[in-house]
């Protein structure tokens, strides 16, 4: 299964004055599935979900392969 790197934007309701991102490495059949897997992963990692949905994490980028952020 191909590997992808996905960068998501946290919902405004979860951040302060500055936007925050979520970085994920996922294995998926295509980029669209990779984005969805990362959104679900980001939601599951939240200790307080308070009505959040996976779609609330907006997709910024999907890269092929496991990229390294430096």
Could you give a short description of this structure?
This protein has one helix and three strands.
Give the SSE map:
Blueprint: E1 3-9, E2 21-27, H1 31-44, E3 58-64
Antiparallel strand pairs: 1-2, 1-3
List keywords for this structure.
single chain; 70 residues; alpha+beta; Ubiquitin-like (UB roll); three-stranded antiparallel sheet; 1 helix; 3 strands; 30% strand; globular
Number of helices: 1
Class of secondary structure makeup: alpha+beta
For this structure, the CATH topology is Ubiquitin-like (UB roll)
Shape: globular
Order of helices and strands: EEHE
Strand order of the largest sheet: 2-1-3
Please give the largest β-sheet.
3 strands, antiparallel
The N- and C-terminal alpha carbons lie at a distance of 25 Å
What portion of residues is helical? 10-25%
Description:
The protein is an alpha+beta fold. It has one domain: Ubiquitin-like (UB roll). It has one helix and three strands, in the order ββαβ. The chain has a three-stranded antiparallel beta sheet with strand order 2-1-3, with helices on one face. It is globular, with a radius of gyration of 12 Å. The chain starts with a strand and ends in a 6-residue tail after the last strand.
């Amino acid at each position: 299964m191909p590997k992808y790197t996905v960068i998501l934007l946290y919902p405004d309701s979860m951040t302060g004055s500055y936007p925050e991102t979520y970085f994920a490495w996922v294995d998926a059949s295509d980029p669209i599935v990779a984005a969805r897997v990362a959104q679900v992963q980001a939601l599951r990692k939240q200790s307080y979900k308070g009505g959040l949905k996976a779609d609330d994490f907006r997709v910024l980028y999907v890269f092929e392969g496991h990229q390294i952020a430096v």
